[in-house]
Specification:
- The protein has 633 residues and is an alpha/beta fold.
- Among the domains are: 7-101, Beta-grasp domain (Ubiquitin-like (UB roll)), CATH 3.10.20; 123-194, Ubiquitin-like (UB roll); 361-397 and 506-632, 2-Layer Sandwich (Nucleotidyltransferase, domain 5), CATH 3.30.420.40; 400-494, no CATH class.
- The strands form seven sheets. A six-stranded mixed sheet has the order 12-11-10-13-15-14, sandwiched between helices. The chain has a six-stranded mixed sheet with strand order 26-25-16-17-18-27, with helices on both faces. The protein has a four-stranded mixed sheet with strand order 6-8-9-7.
- Helix 6 (242-250) crosses helix 7 (253-278).
- The longest helix has 26 residues, at 253-278.
- It is globular, with a radius of gyration of 27 Å.
- The relative contact order is 0.11.
- The mean pLDDT is 91.
Protein backbone atom coordinates (compact mmCIF):
# COMPACT_ATOMS: atom_id res chain seq x y z
CA UNK A 1 0.00 0.00 0.00
CA UNK A 2 1.41 3.39 -1.01
CA UNK A 3 0.73 6.68 0.71
CA UNK A 4 0.60 9.59 -1.74
CA UNK A 5 1.63 13.05 -0.59
CA UNK A 6 -0.58 16.02 -1.37
CA UNK A 7 1.10 19.06 -2.92
CA UNK A 8 -0.20 22.57 -3.40
CA UNK A 9 0.91 25.93 -4.81
CA UNK A 10 1.91 28.97 -2.74
CA UNK A 11 2.37 32.37 -4.38
CA UNK A 12 4.43 34.92 -2.46
CA UNK A 13 3.73 38.57 -3.18
CA UNK A 14 5.03 41.12 -4.01
CA UNK A 15 7.84 38.83 -5.30
CA UNK A 16 5.45 36.88 -7.52
CA UNK A 17 7.32 33.67 -6.65
CA UNK A 18 5.48 30.35 -6.91
CA UNK A 19 6.50 27.20 -5.11
CA UNK A 20 5.02 23.69 -4.92
CA UNK A 21 5.08 22.40 -1.38
CA UNK A 22 3.75 19.54 0.65
CA UNK A 23 0.40 20.24 2.29
CA UNK A 24 0.57 20.90 6.03
CA UNK A 25 3.90 22.73 6.19
CA UNK A 26 4.11 26.23 7.61
CA UNK A 27 4.23 29.39 5.52
CA UNK A 28 7.74 30.02 6.90
CA UNK A 29 8.92 26.62 5.64
CA UNK A 30 7.33 27.28 2.25
CA UNK A 31 9.10 30.64 2.05
CA UNK A 32 12.45 28.93 2.72
CA UNK A 33 11.77 26.46 -0.10
CA UNK A 34 11.00 29.41 -2.37
CA UNK A 35 14.28 31.08 -1.42
CA UNK A 36 12.47 33.95 0.29
CA UNK A 37 13.78 35.16 3.64
CA UNK A 38 11.12 36.31 6.09
CA UNK A 39 12.19 37.85 9.40
CA UNK A 40 12.30 35.05 11.95
CA UNK A 41 14.64 36.10 14.70
CA UNK A 42 13.53 33.31 17.05
CA UNK A 43 14.05 30.63 14.38
CA UNK A 44 10.36 29.87 13.99
CA UNK A 45 9.62 29.11 17.65
CA UNK A 46 6.70 31.54 17.94
CA UNK A 47 8.49 33.90 20.29
CA UNK A 48 9.60 37.02 18.40
CA UNK A 49 6.40 37.83 16.50
CA UNK A 50 8.37 39.27 13.56
CA UNK A 51 7.43 36.79 10.80
CA UNK A 52 4.15 38.51 9.95
CA UNK A 53 2.40 37.79 6.67
CA UNK A 54 -1.04 38.64 5.30
CA UNK A 55 -3.38 35.90 4.09
CA UNK A 56 -6.86 36.86 2.92
CA UNK A 57 -8.10 33.32 2.24
CA UNK A 58 -8.49 31.97 5.78
CA UNK A 59 -9.97 28.68 4.46
CA UNK A 60 -6.58 27.72 2.96
CA UNK A 61 -4.67 27.84 6.24
CA UNK A 62 -4.84 26.61 9.81
CA UNK A 63 -6.91 28.41 12.42
CA UNK A 64 -5.28 31.22 14.32
CA UNK A 65 -3.33 29.95 17.34
CA UNK A 66 -3.12 31.20 20.89
CA UNK A 67 0.46 32.30 20.25
CA UNK A 68 -0.69 34.45 17.34
CA UNK A 69 -3.50 36.01 19.39
CA UNK A 70 -0.90 36.92 21.99
CA UNK A 71 1.65 38.43 19.58
CA UNK A 72 -0.67 40.10 17.04
CA UNK A 73 -2.92 43.06 17.77
CA UNK A 74 -6.68 42.77 17.26
CA UNK A 75 -6.46 45.18 14.33
CA UNK A 76 -3.76 43.05 12.67
CA UNK A 77 -5.84 39.91 13.08
CA UNK A 78 -8.82 41.65 11.49
CA UNK A 79 -6.62 42.70 8.54
CA UNK A 80 -5.55 39.09 7.89
CA UNK A 81 -2.13 39.15 9.55
CA UNK A 82 -0.71 35.79 10.64
CA UNK A 83 2.63 34.55 11.95
CA UNK A 84 4.24 32.50 9.18
CA UNK A 85 5.92 30.10 11.64
CA UNK A 86 2.57 29.20 13.21
CA UNK A 87 0.37 29.02 10.12
CA UNK A 88 0.06 25.77 8.17
CA UNK A 89 -1.07 25.58 4.53
CA UNK A 90 -3.79 23.16 3.37
CA UNK A 91 -4.88 24.66 0.02
CA UNK A 92 -3.41 26.77 -2.78
CA UNK A 93 -2.88 30.22 -1.32
CA UNK A 94 -1.50 33.71 -1.98
CA UNK A 95 0.72 35.10 0.80
CA UNK A 96 1.59 38.80 1.04
CA UNK A 97 4.86 39.61 2.82
CA UNK A 98 4.51 43.12 4.32
CA UNK A 99 7.36 45.59 4.29
CA UNK A 100 8.18 45.14 7.99
CA UNK A 101 8.69 41.38 7.60
CA UNK A 102 11.13 41.53 4.72
CA UNK A 103 14.88 41.14 5.25
CA UNK A 104 17.11 43.73 3.61
CA UNK A 105 20.83 44.38 3.58
CA UNK A 106 21.63 46.15 6.80
CA UNK A 107 23.96 49.02 7.59
CA UNK A 108 27.07 47.05 8.53
CA UNK A 109 30.41 48.01 9.97
CA UNK A 110 32.85 46.24 7.64
CA UNK A 111 35.99 48.18 8.56
CA UNK A 112 37.83 48.68 11.82
CA UNK A 113 40.96 50.16 13.31
CA UNK A 114 44.04 48.79 11.60
CA UNK A 115 47.47 48.36 13.14
CA UNK A 116 50.29 48.09 10.64
CA UNK A 117 52.44 44.98 10.88
CA UNK A 118 55.45 43.79 8.95
CA UNK A 119 54.26 41.90 5.89
CA UNK A 120 55.38 38.31 6.17
CA UNK A 121 52.54 36.01 5.05
CA UNK A 122 52.66 32.26 5.33
CA UNK A 123 51.81 32.13 1.61
CA UNK A 124 54.87 32.65 -0.61
CA UNK A 125 55.50 32.49 -4.34
CA UNK A 126 58.88 31.52 -5.76
CA UNK A 127 59.64 31.80 -9.46
CA UNK A 128 62.23 29.36 -10.80
CA UNK A 129 63.69 28.58 -14.22
CA UNK A 130 64.56 24.89 -14.25
CA UNK A 131 67.03 23.07 -16.42
CA UNK A 132 65.33 20.68 -18.79
CA UNK A 133 66.22 17.01 -18.08
CA UNK A 134 68.57 15.18 -20.41
CA UNK A 135 69.89 11.65 -20.73
CA UNK A 136 72.76 12.69 -18.47
CA UNK A 137 70.41 14.46 -16.01
CA UNK A 138 67.37 12.30 -15.33
CA UNK A 139 66.44 13.83 -11.97
CA UNK A 140 62.65 13.38 -11.35
CA UNK A 141 60.41 16.37 -11.89
CA UNK A 142 59.40 16.84 -8.26
CA UNK A 143 62.95 16.66 -6.89
CA UNK A 144 64.13 19.03 -9.63
CA UNK A 145 61.50 21.59 -8.63
CA UNK A 146 61.87 21.26 -4.85
CA UNK A 147 65.65 21.55 -4.97
CA UNK A 148 65.46 24.69 -7.10
CA UNK A 149 62.93 26.31 -4.76
CA UNK A 150 64.94 25.35 -1.67
CA UNK A 151 68.07 26.78 -3.22
CA UNK A 152 66.23 30.10 -3.73
CA UNK A 153 65.10 30.05 -0.10
CA UNK A 154 68.43 28.99 1.35
CA UNK A 155 67.02 25.83 2.91
CA UNK A 156 67.49 22.15 2.26
CA UNK A 157 65.31 19.06 2.57
CA UNK A 158 62.39 20.69 4.42
CA UNK A 159 59.75 21.26 1.73
CA UNK A 160 56.73 18.99 1.58
CA UNK A 161 54.22 18.76 -1.25
CA UNK A 162 50.56 18.24 -1.95
CA UNK A 163 49.91 15.02 -3.84
CA UNK A 164 47.51 16.75 -6.25
CA UNK A 165 50.40 19.00 -7.32
CA UNK A 166 52.48 15.95 -8.20
CA UNK A 167 49.74 14.53 -10.42
CA UNK A 168 49.71 17.69 -12.56
CA UNK A 169 53.40 18.54 -12.34
CA UNK A 170 54.81 16.79 -15.45
CA UNK A 171 52.40 18.55 -17.82
CA UNK A 172 52.80 21.99 -16.19
CA UNK A 173 56.61 21.89 -16.29
CA UNK A 174 56.78 20.89 -19.93
CA UNK A 175 54.00 23.16 -21.19
CA UNK A 176 55.65 26.15 -19.49
CA UNK A 177 59.11 25.25 -20.83
CA UNK A 178 60.30 24.62 -17.27
CA UNK A 179 59.67 28.19 -16.08
CA UNK A 180 57.18 28.02 -13.22
CA UNK A 181 56.05 29.67 -9.99
CA UNK A 182 55.87 27.51 -6.89
CA UNK A 183 53.13 28.42 -4.37
CA UNK A 184 54.06 27.60 -0.79
CA UNK A 185 51.95 27.53 2.36
CA UNK A 186 54.66 27.54 4.97
CA UNK A 187 56.98 24.74 3.86
CA UNK A 188 54.33 22.92 1.87
CA UNK A 189 54.08 23.14 -1.91
CA UNK A 190 50.36 23.61 -2.64
CA UNK A 191 50.41 24.66 -6.30
CA UNK A 192 52.63 25.17 -9.34
CA UNK A 193 51.73 27.77 -11.97
CA UNK A 194 53.17 28.31 -15.47
CA UNK A 195 55.44 31.35 -15.85
CA UNK A 196 56.05 34.13 -13.36
CA UNK A 197 52.88 34.86 -11.31
CA UNK A 198 54.63 36.22 -8.21
CA UNK A 199 52.74 39.52 -8.44
CA UNK A 200 49.38 37.76 -8.09
CA UNK A 201 49.17 36.59 -4.50
CA UNK A 202 45.97 37.22 -2.55
CA UNK A 203 44.13 36.10 0.57
CA UNK A 204 40.84 36.61 2.41
CA UNK A 205 40.17 37.80 5.95
CA UNK A 206 36.75 36.58 7.08
CA UNK A 207 34.63 37.43 10.12
CA UNK A 208 31.68 35.08 10.61
CA UNK A 209 29.40 36.97 12.98
CA UNK A 210 26.14 35.69 14.39
CA UNK A 211 24.31 38.22 12.24
CA UNK A 212 26.70 39.01 9.38
CA UNK A 213 29.63 37.76 7.31
CA UNK A 214 32.36 40.24 6.36
CA UNK A 215 35.24 39.51 3.95
CA UNK A 216 38.32 41.54 3.03
CA UNK A 217 40.24 40.63 -0.13
CA UNK A 218 43.90 41.36 0.66
CA UNK A 219 46.98 41.77 -1.53
CA UNK A 220 49.59 39.67 0.29
CA UNK A 221 52.48 41.58 -1.27
CA UNK A 222 51.41 45.05 -0.11
CA UNK A 223 49.08 44.15 2.75
CA UNK A 224 46.37 46.39 1.26
CA UNK A 225 42.66 45.58 1.29
CA UNK A 226 41.52 45.58 -2.35
CA UNK A 227 37.79 45.01 -1.83
CA UNK A 228 35.31 44.40 0.96
CA UNK A 229 32.09 42.40 0.88
CA UNK A 230 29.43 41.51 3.41
CA UNK A 231 26.07 39.83 3.78
CA UNK A 232 23.61 38.71 6.42
CA UNK A 233 24.61 35.39 7.93
CA UNK A 234 22.18 33.05 6.09
CA UNK A 235 21.89 30.92 9.23
CA UNK A 236 19.47 33.58 10.47
CA UNK A 237 16.78 31.38 8.88
CA UNK A 238 17.16 29.13 11.92
CA UNK A 239 17.35 31.80 14.60
CA UNK A 240 18.80 35.21 15.32
CA UNK A 241 20.80 34.08 18.34
CA UNK A 242 23.50 31.50 18.95
CA UNK A 243 21.43 29.27 21.23
CA UNK A 244 18.63 28.88 18.64
CA UNK A 245 21.16 27.64 16.10
CA UNK A 246 22.90 25.33 18.55
CA UNK A 247 19.51 23.86 19.46
CA UNK A 248 18.67 23.32 15.80
CA UNK A 249 22.08 21.79 14.98
CA UNK A 250 21.93 19.52 18.03
CA UNK A 251 18.72 17.79 16.94
CA UNK A 252 20.30 15.93 13.99
CA UNK A 253 23.40 15.68 11.82
CA UNK A 254 21.26 16.74 8.87
CA UNK A 255 20.45 20.02 10.63
CA UNK A 256 24.12 20.58 11.44
CA UNK A 257 25.02 19.97 7.79
CA UNK A 258 22.31 22.41 6.71
CA UNK A 259 23.69 25.19 8.91
CA UNK A 260 27.23 24.55 7.72
CA UNK A 261 26.14 24.60 4.07
CA UNK A 262 24.35 27.91 4.57
CA UNK A 263 27.42 29.69 5.92
CA UNK A 264 29.78 28.07 3.39
CA UNK A 265 27.50 29.05 0.50
CA UNK A 266 27.36 32.57 1.92
CA UNK A 267 31.14 32.83 2.09
CA UNK A 268 31.49 31.56 -1.48
CA UNK A 269 29.00 34.21 -2.59
CA UNK A 270 30.92 37.04 -0.89
CA UNK A 271 34.24 35.73 -2.28
CA UNK A 272 32.81 36.01 -5.80
CA UNK A 273 31.59 39.55 -5.07
CA UNK A 274 34.91 40.89 -3.76
CA UNK A 275 37.00 39.22 -6.50
CA UNK A 276 34.76 40.78 -9.15
CA UNK A 277 35.03 44.19 -7.47
CA UNK A 278 38.83 44.04 -7.49
CA UNK A 279 39.23 42.27 -10.83
CA UNK A 280 41.10 39.41 -9.15
CA UNK A 281 41.10 35.83 -10.42
CA UNK A 282 39.73 33.67 -7.54
CA UNK A 283 42.34 31.03 -8.44
CA UNK A 284 44.99 33.45 -7.17
CA UNK A 285 43.42 33.54 -3.67
CA UNK A 286 45.44 30.99 -1.71
CA UNK A 287 44.35 31.33 1.90
CA UNK A 288 41.45 32.60 4.02
CA UNK A 289 41.87 33.37 7.72
CA UNK A 290 38.53 32.98 9.47
CA UNK A 291 37.38 34.26 12.88
CA UNK A 292 34.08 34.08 14.74
CA UNK A 293 32.67 33.30 18.15
CA UNK A 294 32.95 29.70 19.30
CA UNK A 295 29.50 28.67 18.05
CA UNK A 296 30.02 30.21 14.60
CA UNK A 297 33.49 28.58 14.46
CA UNK A 298 32.05 25.13 15.19
CA UNK A 299 29.15 25.48 12.75
CA UNK A 300 31.48 26.65 9.97
CA UNK A 301 33.73 23.63 10.47
CA UNK A 302 30.77 21.28 10.82
CA UNK A 303 31.63 20.44 14.44
CA UNK A 304 28.68 19.52 16.66
CA UNK A 305 28.16 22.58 18.94
CA UNK A 306 25.75 20.90 21.35
CA UNK A 307 28.12 20.84 24.31
CA UNK A 308 28.83 24.56 24.10
CA UNK A 309 25.37 25.10 25.56
CA UNK A 310 25.76 22.51 28.32
CA UNK A 311 27.78 23.02 31.50
CA UNK A 312 30.78 23.29 31.68
CA UNK A 313 30.48 24.80 28.12
CA UNK A 314 33.61 23.26 26.63
CA UNK A 315 34.48 23.67 22.93
CA UNK A 316 35.58 20.71 20.82
CA UNK A 317 38.90 22.38 20.00
CA UNK A 318 40.78 25.53 20.98
CA UNK A 319 43.89 25.63 18.80
CA UNK A 320 44.18 27.11 15.34
CA UNK A 321 43.07 24.79 12.54
CA UNK A 322 44.26 24.76 8.91
CA UNK A 323 42.69 22.58 6.24
CA UNK A 324 42.19 22.57 2.51
CA UNK A 325 39.37 24.81 1.31
CA UNK A 326 37.88 22.01 -0.78
CA UNK A 327 37.30 19.97 2.38
CA UNK A 328 34.79 22.63 3.45
CA UNK A 329 33.39 23.13 -0.09
CA UNK A 330 34.86 26.64 -0.24
CA UNK A 331 35.16 26.67 -4.03
CA UNK A 332 35.61 30.34 -4.95
CA UNK A 333 39.35 30.42 -4.31
CA UNK A 334 42.31 28.32 -5.40
CA UNK A 335 41.23 24.68 -5.36
CA UNK A 336 44.33 23.79 -3.36
CA UNK A 337 44.00 26.84 -1.08
CA UNK A 338 43.98 26.73 2.71
CA UNK A 339 41.36 27.77 5.28
CA UNK A 340 42.83 28.77 8.66
CA UNK A 341 40.77 29.48 11.75
CA UNK A 342 42.43 31.46 14.52
CA UNK A 343 42.45 29.88 18.00
CA UNK A 344 39.66 30.26 20.54
CA UNK A 345 39.92 31.33 24.19
CA UNK A 346 37.15 29.50 26.09
CA UNK A 347 33.38 29.10 26.32
CA UNK A 348 31.71 31.43 23.85
CA UNK A 349 34.78 33.70 23.68
CA UNK A 350 36.13 32.71 20.32
CA UNK A 351 38.62 33.60 17.62
CA UNK A 352 36.90 36.94 17.10
CA UNK A 353 37.99 37.99 20.60
CA UNK A 354 41.57 36.99 19.83
CA UNK A 355 41.33 39.09 16.67
CA UNK A 356 39.90 42.01 18.70
CA UNK A 357 42.97 41.95 20.92
CA UNK A 358 45.35 41.80 17.96
CA UNK A 359 43.66 44.72 16.19
CA UNK A 360 43.43 47.01 19.22
CA UNK A 361 46.82 46.12 20.69
CA UNK A 362 45.55 45.52 24.23
CA UNK A 363 48.33 42.95 24.69
CA UNK A 364 50.90 45.70 24.08
CA UNK A 365 49.21 48.44 26.13
CA UNK A 366 50.76 49.78 29.32
CA UNK A 367 47.47 51.31 30.49
CA UNK A 368 44.40 49.31 31.46
CA UNK A 369 42.03 48.85 28.54
CA UNK A 370 38.39 47.76 28.50
CA UNK A 371 37.07 46.35 25.22
CA UNK A 372 33.37 45.63 24.68
CA UNK A 373 32.44 43.89 21.41
CA UNK A 374 28.67 44.38 21.45
CA UNK A 375 26.43 41.86 19.76
CA UNK A 376 23.92 39.12 20.44
CA UNK A 377 26.82 37.44 22.23
CA UNK A 378 28.87 40.28 23.73
CA UNK A 379 32.55 39.65 24.46
CA UNK A 380 34.36 41.75 27.05
CA UNK A 381 38.11 41.98 27.65
CA UNK A 382 39.94 43.92 30.38
CA UNK A 383 43.69 44.21 30.82
CA UNK A 384 47.03 45.30 29.46
CA UNK A 385 50.35 43.83 28.40
CA UNK A 386 50.82 42.14 31.76
CA UNK A 387 47.50 40.38 32.18
CA UNK A 388 44.11 40.07 30.44
CA UNK A 389 40.82 38.57 31.51
CA UNK A 390 37.70 38.05 29.38
CA UNK A 391 34.12 36.87 29.51
CA UNK A 392 31.06 36.61 27.30
CA UNK A 393 27.54 37.57 28.18
CA UNK A 394 24.26 36.69 26.55
CA UNK A 395 23.14 40.27 25.96
CA UNK A 396 20.44 38.92 23.66
CA UNK A 397 19.26 40.22 20.31
CA UNK A 398 17.48 43.34 21.61
CA UNK A 399 20.17 45.49 20.00
CA UNK A 400 19.21 43.89 16.67
CA UNK A 401 15.58 44.91 17.22
CA UNK A 402 14.47 41.44 18.31
CA UNK A 403 11.77 41.22 21.04
CA UNK A 404 11.15 44.96 20.52
CA UNK A 405 7.59 45.61 19.26
CA UNK A 406 8.65 47.86 16.40
CA UNK A 407 12.27 46.77 16.40
CA UNK A 408 14.15 45.99 13.20
CA UNK A 409 17.68 45.66 11.91
CA UNK A 410 19.70 48.65 10.77
CA UNK A 411 18.31 48.73 7.23
CA UNK A 412 16.76 51.46 5.11
CA UNK A 413 13.78 52.95 6.95
CA UNK A 414 15.02 52.12 10.44
CA UNK A 415 15.07 55.03 12.89
CA UNK A 416 18.67 55.22 14.12
CA UNK A 417 18.80 58.51 16.08
CA UNK A 418 16.22 59.99 18.47
CA UNK A 419 16.04 63.20 20.49
CA UNK A 420 13.14 64.38 22.66
CA UNK A 421 12.68 68.14 22.98
CA UNK A 422 11.69 70.06 26.11
CA UNK A 423 8.07 70.13 24.96
CA UNK A 424 8.14 66.35 24.47
CA UNK A 425 8.25 66.34 20.70
CA UNK A 426 10.36 63.64 19.03
CA UNK A 427 13.05 64.36 16.46
CA UNK A 428 14.47 61.34 14.63
CA UNK A 429 16.71 60.30 11.77
CA UNK A 430 16.21 57.25 9.57
CA UNK A 431 18.70 55.19 7.61
CA UNK A 432 18.41 56.33 4.00
CA UNK A 433 16.41 59.43 4.95
CA UNK A 434 13.10 57.74 4.10
CA UNK A 435 9.84 57.33 6.03
CA UNK A 436 10.36 55.23 9.16
CA UNK A 437 9.47 51.55 9.35
CA UNK A 438 10.73 50.75 12.83
CA UNK A 439 13.54 51.14 15.37
CA UNK A 440 17.05 49.74 15.18
CA UNK A 441 19.12 49.15 18.31
CA UNK A 442 20.82 52.54 18.52
CA UNK A 443 17.42 54.25 18.45
CA UNK A 444 16.10 52.05 21.26
CA UNK A 445 19.03 53.15 23.43
CA UNK A 446 18.42 56.79 22.47
CA UNK A 447 14.70 56.80 23.20
CA UNK A 448 15.06 55.11 26.60
CA UNK A 449 17.84 57.53 27.59
CA UNK A 450 15.83 60.51 26.34
CA UNK A 451 12.66 59.40 28.15
CA UNK A 452 14.66 59.00 31.35
CA UNK A 453 16.24 62.44 31.01
CA UNK A 454 12.82 64.03 30.51
CA UNK A 455 11.08 62.17 33.33
CA UNK A 456 8.83 60.12 31.04
CA UNK A 457 10.16 56.93 32.67
CA UNK A 458 11.63 56.46 36.12
CA UNK A 459 14.80 54.68 37.22
CA UNK A 460 12.96 51.35 37.09
CA UNK A 461 12.05 51.94 33.45
CA UNK A 462 8.37 52.38 34.27
CA UNK A 463 6.29 55.05 32.55
CA UNK A 464 5.58 58.08 34.72
CA UNK A 465 1.80 58.33 34.38
CA UNK A 466 1.77 61.74 36.05
CA UNK A 467 3.29 63.12 32.83
CA UNK A 468 0.28 64.05 30.72
CA UNK A 469 1.40 64.18 27.09
CA UNK A 470 -0.31 62.97 23.88
CA UNK A 471 2.57 60.65 23.00
CA UNK A 472 2.10 58.57 26.17
CA UNK A 473 -1.04 56.56 25.48
CA UNK A 474 -2.80 53.44 26.68
CA UNK A 475 -3.31 50.56 24.21
CA UNK A 476 -4.41 46.94 24.45
CA UNK A 477 -0.77 46.12 25.25
CA UNK A 478 -0.58 48.69 28.05
CA UNK A 479 1.08 52.10 27.92
CA UNK A 480 3.27 53.03 24.95
CA UNK A 481 5.25 56.09 23.95
CA UNK A 482 4.66 57.19 20.35
CA UNK A 483 7.87 57.92 18.44
CA UNK A 484 6.32 58.39 15.00
CA UNK A 485 2.64 58.98 14.30
CA UNK A 486 0.70 56.92 11.80
CA UNK A 487 0.84 59.54 9.04
CA UNK A 488 4.65 59.77 9.32
CA UNK A 489 5.48 56.10 8.79
CA UNK A 490 5.98 53.87 5.75
CA UNK A 491 3.72 51.17 7.21
CA UNK A 492 0.77 53.42 8.09
CA UNK A 493 1.02 52.32 11.72
CA UNK A 494 2.41 54.17 14.70
CA UNK A 495 5.95 53.35 15.79
CA UNK A 496 6.00 53.10 19.56
CA UNK A 497 8.05 51.78 22.44
CA UNK A 498 6.28 49.70 25.06
CA UNK A 499 6.90 48.88 28.70
CA UNK A 500 8.00 45.40 27.61
CA UNK A 501 10.47 46.89 25.11
CA UNK A 502 12.05 49.00 27.83
CA UNK A 503 12.42 45.91 30.01
CA UNK A 504 14.10 43.99 27.17
CA UNK A 505 16.66 46.77 26.84
CA UNK A 506 17.21 46.88 30.60
CA UNK A 507 17.99 43.16 30.69
CA UNK A 508 20.36 43.43 27.72
CA UNK A 509 22.24 46.43 29.08
CA UNK A 510 22.39 44.85 32.55
CA UNK A 511 24.10 41.78 31.12
CA UNK A 512 26.81 43.88 29.46
CA UNK A 513 27.39 46.18 32.41
CA UNK A 514 27.56 43.18 34.76
CA UNK A 515 30.27 41.61 32.60
CA UNK A 516 32.27 44.86 32.63
CA UNK A 517 31.93 45.45 36.36
CA UNK A 518 32.81 41.89 37.38
CA UNK A 519 35.93 41.79 35.18
CA UNK A 520 37.02 45.20 36.46
CA UNK A 521 36.55 43.98 40.03
CA UNK A 522 38.59 40.85 39.28
CA UNK A 523 41.39 43.19 38.16
CA UNK A 524 40.85 45.59 41.12
CA UNK A 525 40.08 48.43 38.72
CA UNK A 526 37.75 51.41 39.02
CA UNK A 527 36.42 53.54 36.20
CA UNK A 528 39.21 56.09 36.64
CA UNK A 529 41.80 53.31 36.17
CA UNK A 530 40.66 52.64 32.59
CA UNK A 531 42.82 54.47 30.06
CA UNK A 532 40.68 53.53 27.04
CA UNK A 533 37.28 51.97 26.47
CA UNK A 534 37.11 50.36 23.03
CA UNK A 535 33.59 49.73 21.71
CA UNK A 536 33.75 47.23 18.86
CA UNK A 537 31.36 45.36 16.64
CA UNK A 538 28.88 46.10 13.90
CA UNK A 539 26.36 47.57 16.33
CA UNK A 540 28.72 49.39 18.68
CA UNK A 541 29.87 51.89 16.07
CA UNK A 542 26.44 53.51 15.85
CA UNK A 543 25.50 54.07 19.48
CA UNK A 544 25.56 57.42 21.25
CA UNK A 545 28.15 57.03 24.06
CA UNK A 546 26.44 59.56 26.33
CA UNK A 547 23.11 57.77 26.05
CA UNK A 548 24.84 54.42 26.55
CA UNK A 549 26.16 55.74 29.86
CA UNK A 550 22.82 57.27 30.85
CA UNK A 551 21.03 53.92 30.61
CA UNK A 552 23.95 52.12 32.29
CA UNK A 553 25.05 50.03 29.31
CA UNK A 554 28.74 50.83 29.82
CA UNK A 555 30.70 52.07 32.87
CA UNK A 556 30.77 55.81 33.52
CA UNK A 557 34.09 56.45 31.80
CA UNK A 558 34.82 59.95 30.40
CA UNK A 559 33.62 60.20 26.79
CA UNK A 560 37.03 61.33 25.58
CA UNK A 561 38.40 57.93 26.65
CA UNK A 562 35.79 56.05 24.57
CA UNK A 563 36.87 54.96 21.10
CA UNK A 564 34.69 53.28 18.49
CA UNK A 565 36.91 50.82 16.67
CA UNK A 566 34.46 49.16 14.27
CA UNK A 567 34.89 45.59 13.10
CA UNK A 568 38.16 44.74 14.82
CA UNK A 569 37.52 41.02 14.37
CA UNK A 570 38.01 41.13 10.61
CA UNK A 571 41.00 43.47 10.99
CA UNK A 572 42.66 41.02 13.41
CA UNK A 573 42.04 38.24 10.89
CA UNK A 574 43.69 40.40 8.21
CA UNK A 575 46.75 40.96 10.43
CA UNK A 576 47.11 37.18 10.86
CA UNK A 577 46.70 36.72 7.11
CA UNK A 578 49.65 38.95 6.26
CA UNK A 579 51.95 38.07 9.18
CA UNK A 580 53.18 34.71 10.48
CA UNK A 581 54.36 36.45 13.63
CA UNK A 582 50.84 37.70 14.36
CA UNK A 583 49.61 34.10 14.12
CA UNK A 584 52.14 33.08 16.72
CA UNK A 585 50.93 35.91 18.93
CA UNK A 586 47.35 34.71 18.45
CA UNK A 587 48.28 31.22 19.66
CA UNK A 588 49.99 32.75 22.69
CA UNK A 589 47.00 34.97 23.51
CA UNK A 590 44.67 31.97 23.30
CA UNK A 591 46.65 30.35 26.12
CA UNK A 592 47.42 33.43 28.23
CA UNK A 593 44.12 35.35 28.31
CA UNK A 594 42.19 34.26 31.39
CA UNK A 595 38.55 33.29 30.95
CA UNK A 596 35.98 34.09 33.64
CA UNK A 597 32.65 32.27 33.64
CA UNK A 598 30.14 34.90 34.71
CA UNK A 599 27.45 32.39 35.68
CA UNK A 600 29.82 30.85 38.24
CA UNK A 601 30.77 34.18 39.82
CA UNK A 602 29.28 34.53 43.34
CA UNK A 603 28.50 38.22 42.71
CA UNK A 604 26.87 37.72 39.33
CA UNK A 605 23.27 37.68 40.55
CA UNK A 606 23.57 40.75 42.77
CA UNK A 607 25.54 42.68 40.14
CA UNK A 608 22.96 41.84 37.49
CA UNK A 609 20.03 42.88 39.69
CA UNK A 610 21.80 46.15 40.52
CA UNK A 611 22.40 46.81 36.81
CA UNK A 612 18.74 46.52 35.74
CA UNK A 613 17.59 49.99 36.95
CA UNK A 614 18.55 53.08 34.95
CA UNK A 615 21.44 53.69 35.08
CA UNK A 616 22.09 51.41 38.08
CA UNK A 617 20.71 50.72 41.53
CA UNK A 618 24.02 52.03 42.92
CA UNK A 619 23.68 55.50 41.42
CA UNK A 620 27.08 56.62 42.75
CA UNK A 621 28.67 54.44 40.08
CA UNK A 622 27.39 56.96 37.53
CA UNK A 623 28.34 60.41 38.82
CA UNK A 624 28.11 62.03 35.38
CA UNK A 625 24.57 60.73 34.91
CA UNK A 626 23.55 61.67 38.44
CA UNK A 627 24.90 65.18 37.99
CA UNK A 628 23.25 65.52 34.57
CA UNK A 629 19.84 64.49 35.86
CA UNK A 630 20.10 66.83 38.83
CA UNK A 631 21.11 69.76 36.64
CA UNK A 632 18.27 69.03 34.22
CA UNK A 633 15.76 68.91 37.08
Amino acid sequence: MFCSLSYLTVIFEPDGKRVRVEAGITILQAAKEAGIIIRSECGGRGVCGKCKVIVKNADAISEISGIERKLLSQREIEEGYRLSCQTRIFKDVVVMIPLESRVETRKMEVHGVERRVEINPIIRKIYVELKEPTLSDVKPDLERLLEAVEERLGIRGVLEFDFNVLRRLPEILRSSKWNVTAVLWGNRLIDVEPGDTTNEIFGMAVDIGTSKIVCHLVDLKSGDTLAVGSMENPQILYGEDVISRITYASSSNHNLDSLQKLVVDGINKVFVEVCQKAGVNPDKVYEAVVVGNTAMHHLFLGIQPKYLALSPYTPAVKRSISLMAKNLNINQMNSRGIITTLPLIAGFVGADAVADILATGIHESEGNVLLVDIGTNTEIIVGNREDMICCSCASGPAFEGVHIKDGMKAVTGAIERIRITRNFEVEYETIGGVKPRGLCGSAVIDVVAEMFKHGIIDCHGKFNLSVSIPRLKRTERGFEFVIAWRNETATGREITITQKDIRELQLAKAAIYTGCSILMRKKNLREYDISTLFIAGAFGSYINPENAKIIGLIPDIPTEKIKFVGNTAVMGAKMALISKEVRQTAELLSKLVRYHELAADPDFHSEFINAIPIPNRIIDRFPSVKKYIQSFA
